[in-house]
Amino acid sequence: MAINLTENAARHIRSQVAKAGGVALRLGIKKVGCSGLAYTFDIAKAIGPDDEIFLSQDTQVLIERKNLPFLDGTSVDFVRKGLNESFRFDNPNAKSECGCGESFNV
Description:
By secondary structure, the chain is an alpha+beta fold. It has helices at 7-20, 68-71, and strands at residues 3-5, 24-31, 37-44, 51-56, 59-64, 74-81, 84-90, 96-97, 103-105.
């Protein structure tokens, strides 16, 4: 099981976690979107009993165990394009994605 962050993603996550006084980024999924599942992320204030901890680029990422089959092997990048900035996901488990990249299907 692995989650990989690019240097840009790790830098952005570390900055946001420090600003919020958290311990890690919590990456997850929810049922929604035009393709069925959407990525979720927020700052975790604590590590929960159902969390799996991943370390990439000296940055902690937490994923609830129930979400691991959907996110295993995912690479996360953080890109800036003009005035827009966002996370980009390369998920080997996704069979299809919507055009905007916000949701996926497995």
